[in-house]
Specification:
Elements: E1 5-8, E2 17-20, E3 25-31, E4 34-39, E5 56-58, E6 65-67, E7 73-75, E8 84-85, E9 87-90, E10 93-96
Antiparallel strand pairs: 1-10, 2-3, 3-4, 4-8, 5-6, 6-7, 9-10
Length: 97
C-alpha cells in the first residue's frame, strides 16, 4: 500500500475528511496542514464509517464515534480504535508513507 495516493489535499477540509472507498481508508485533516488516515471499517461490526465532520468519524450503522486526530473510539458501542496509516503529502496528494 506504500505510495498509494489516498486523496488530494484540496478534498480534505480542516475538521473534516474524505473516504477512499476503493482502499477502505478515511483521510482526515484535524488541524490545518495535518493529515491522518485510518481504516474506514468500524471496529464494532465492520460497517463503513461516514465522511468525518467536526473532527469526528461516525459509524452510520450503530453510532460509534472516533476521534479524527487519533482514530480512538470516543463513543460506543465500538471500544477499539480505527487502524492508523502513516501518510505524507507529495505535491497535492496525500499518500501512504
Amino acid at each position: 500500500m506504500k505510495g498509494k495516493v489516498l486523496a488530494k489535499t484540496a478534498d480534505v477540509p480542516v475538521g473534516g475528511g474524505t473516504l477512499n472507498e476503493d482502499l477502505k481508508i478515511v483521510v482526515t485533516q484535524p488541524e490545518e496542514g495535518v493529515y491522518k488516515a485510518f481504516s474506514s471499517l468500524c471496529t464494532h461490526k465492520g460497517c463503513v464509517v461516514s465522511t468525518p465532520e467536526n473532527n469526528v468519524i461516525t459509524c452510520a450503522c450503530h453510532g460509534s464515534e472516533f476521534a479524527a486526530d487519533s482514530g480512538k473510539a470516543t463513543k460506543g458501542p465500538a471500544t477499539g480504535g480505527l487502524a492508523a496509516y502513516q501518510v505524507k503529502v507529495e505535491g497535492d496528494g496525500i499518500v501512504v508513507a
